[in-house]
């Protein structure tokens, strides 16, 4: 027994201590449960309403005070409002504290209600209640096949469709799941092994916290899981009277708003983050979809809050349209010959050895023109010297084109779907909707694939997942592997981890690593292990660190004639299906370590997936039986339509595909229908399920006897957490299983940490490449290396956070200012204050001499020309100069501004004037903020060099960043006032309308296919502090010339 184990035997480990603290709360749930179990179905639902009222009424006093204070804001002078806002903030915090106290009080009863609802569903085919308007509304939607109405009764069925699969409710919360639910409610991370029912666990804290009415967000890693869980667990919430919403890719704005207004909202991290950004780009509050960030439970929390935490979500707008140049560059790249080098150490030496126009370094994923390629480029584009500074843009297009053709591979790095290039995540194989490669690479790939080339983008709004999720008042998470990142969770998010014990003892064997000299030796051993398991019917899941390596192993298995599934971009939409079937007898599945997370692997296979696959084959065969005849008829009809000039008919394949999809969707549904084909599909589906069920049961026993699921890792990941996730796919709910990692000294991790020592050991022992070393000591050494890398990566991520925090503070200020405008507050006082500040700043800038003789009246006149000044202003005699004061001039200019605004309000009316004020402020805030995002990004690029000058780059970035922010605020202030003083309404009695300054990519495209879009406008960007090109000698921000200041 080592020292750590000795201490644990004396004092217990952290997990046992956590369980002791939670045990009394679990006991309270058990005490409350018998009473809840004795209630009728109607009484159970009524109890939910009682809890809801109790929780929401608990803070009535504070909410009334908040409403009272908000009503006072309009009548309070602008400089006195800050105290009201502070009082509101304080009261809102009190409300949250009171709610939390009330939730803790009702938790035993609330948890018991959810648990007994699950029991009633599991034990009864139908759960009958008195129908409410809410029940009738649910039943009216054909998608909600779990409920039907019969007279004054609502019947909730215990089987329905979730995630496209027919499900029968068979789950009831057991004790360790109650532990997990309490941990999540407390705002912590529940670490639960695969198969322990994390999805069911979440129903407990979700229901409890939804009682406040503030909404609960359940965050998943992909659209499939969000849809499946909203339909699967959603029935529990809906039965108890709570509304459920779903936010996934493709949901329209109105439906999104409705989804966020629900008590419980399921969605992906991408969609929640993008919606936050979109909300802060809208120009009317009615267009916002989110209603706040009260409580979120993040599924696979380590993936979202660690792996993707620093990923910036970026909404881009149209930049300059360079599609023609990207297409020309691609036409050129097609003519070139490619040479591939696995690892390019010496570019010059490589050029001498290769025979090609450009060299691809596969390791670094770069493409470089050789001397012959440069000459061909110069000839193709008719330039004398490609390296000339004037040809930098051309070189950018050429480099993008050869990288798109030489490095980026379709169905590995990206896929093309519905005319769009969609990125494939290198490690998970998932599709990254809404993301684009940077530096023009995405456009180069679009040109290569012959789809529409989008204009280069400009960042309109951005936020990292890390900063988005830190906005939630309460945050919790669940995963199977979090302990290795405990420090980061605690330091960045304030989240503690509680490890929940498994319901049944773990039976999986984790075997020592096998280390080989070469990659070839390792891969041969992997294939041998797969063949051995396959021969005895033991299923195997082979985990890789990238999609590319999955493809390489697939080729080797094909050579050996071993049937297998490989999960990559091509099978993205079948991810859950492929992984769910990985436990079938003799199945061999290759996937990246993180693919298929959230889908349990059942030994023997999954009946529903098998039945659906068989039904799809049958239906497809039936629907295409007459395809040849239909195609012939279609060709004749098309010819007639062309001759007559009428609309072309629809190809028969389109109708067949649509019908097949409809039947597959409906085959496991339960909504009422008289459609004969749907009824036949449902009947056949049930028959197939009954047919496959005994087979799956038999296979499960065979697989258990063969040793359960065997997990093979082909390389250690930098993070132990990812390795643990892969191991955790086996041994679900006490099932047998085994795991082993096969490594080579050529693996990155081995090469960097201690590979030489092991290499020398192997050489001294005279071991061949196919002879492994298996020793627990080596496994421990590798884990030690992983710990070092984890610490290093955390330090890097922490520094990125420090940079991002600067931008985040600025973002909060800007978005708060926007919110004030959207809330419809009277901002006239604020704009008057801005005008006074702008005038005072200008007077301090131009009238800064010791005497009036030294003052720059000409500069002040130019600054305010045509909005507060005339050419005849500031012409004084010597006597008048002696009487002048800075304050007097500022007062006169302010009076003029107020006179202009008063006259405008009299002309347009108070209501129109208030809206004009909002338009002016909103437009300037948005346009200046977008420019500031770009400027901050450029500032960050050069910050690393400050370290050489003994300056802390983060401190320097913070200082300079806030100096730039202050300058932006001053610019917003002055330009908003200038716009308000000079803006006019051209059409009499017309209502002024707000326009969105930030136009996301795609919105500027022609409304109809084939319509001509606007011609691109090339703009030379002038910095605010650059000399104005008009020749006045003034900085651009000080100059008032019409040529370079068209808005004046």
Question: Could you please describe the fold and organization of this structure?
Answer:
It is a single chain. With 1048 residues, this protein is of the alpha/beta class. The strands form seven sheets. Strands 21, 22, 23, 24, 25, 26, 27 and 28 form an eight-stranded mixed sheet that branches. Strands 8-9-7-10-19-6-20 form a seven-stranded parallel sheet, sandwiched between helices. It has a three-stranded antiparallel sheet with strand order 1-3-2, with helices on one face. Helix 4 packs across helix 5 (81-123), helix 31 (776-822) packs parallel to helix 37 (953-982) and helix 32 runs antiparallel to helix 35 (886-908). The longest helix has 47 residues, at 776-822. The model is unreliable at 343-351 and 1002-1024 (pLDDT under 50).
Overview features:
1048 residues, alpha/beta, eight-stranded mixed beta sheet, seven-stranded parallel beta sheet, 53% helix
State the end-to-end distance: 80 Å
For the secondary structure, the number of strands is: 28
Helix content: 40-55%
Question: Which blocks of ≥5 consecutive residues have pLDDT under 50?
Answer: 343-351, 1002-1024
Structural class given helices, strands, pairing?
Answer: alpha/beta
Integer average pLDDT: 81
C-alpha-based Rg, rounded: 33 Å
Strand content: 5-15%
Q: What is the molecular shape?
A: globular
SS summary, helix count: 37
Largest sheet: 8 strands, mixed
Short description:
With 1048 residues, the protein is of the alpha/beta class.
